[in-house]
Amino acid sequence: MKKFISKLREKKGFTLVELLIVVAIIAVLVAIAIPIFTSQLERSRDSVTASNLRAAYAEAMADMISNGSSSSTQEVVCKGTSAENNGDLSGEGKDLPFGGNALSTIAGYTAEQTVNVKFTVEADDTVKAEVVNTTGDDDTP
């Protein structure tokens, strides 16, 4: 009997306290990582939206040149942005080659939307982009 008890005491392993400490450390690391991941996800959505706007602008300009018109309406898929951007799209929208209300309107969408954007060449050769209508989730600001 003494041999059996001594063998049980010699057994190596982790105590419950050690396991709880490891679980607590993992919980703290996850709590730190989730907000960072969420902000990176929002920035990537902003980048996709700005990229889609650039592509729509290029398509509109090609359409206007080939048809000789001064305006073109293009469909743009917006992936949803954070509402606090106020048209900035996390800095992604600062180099877009057009003005108008499209950028500030789109920056308020918090869900995926399909937006029709009308690009118009003004008399001073600047391009204005305006949202003419939206479809998809009705989560407009």
How does this structure look, described?
The chain is α+β, with helices and mostly antiparallel strands and 141 residues long. It has one domain (15-136). The protein has helices at residues 2-10, 16-67, 102-106, and strands at residues 71-78, 113-121, 127-136. It has a 3-stranded antiparallel sheet. The longest helix has 52 residues, at 16-67. The protein is rod-shaped, with a radius of gyration of 27 Å. The termini are far apart. The model is unreliable at 137-141 (pLDDT under 50).
Helix content percent band = 40-55%
Kindly state the mean pLDDT as a whole number?
78
Low-confidence stretches: 137-141
Supply the number of structural domains.
1
Choose one word for the global shape. Answer: rod-shaped
Give the oligomeric state.
Answer: single chain
What's the total count of β strands? 3
Main beta-sheet annotation: 3 strands, antiparallel
Strand order of the largest sheet: 1-2-3
Distance between the termini: 76 Å
What is the string of SSEs from the N terminus onward?
Answer: HHEHEE
Alpha carbon gyration radius: 27 Å
Q: Report the portion of residues in β strands.
A: 15-25%
Number of helices: 3
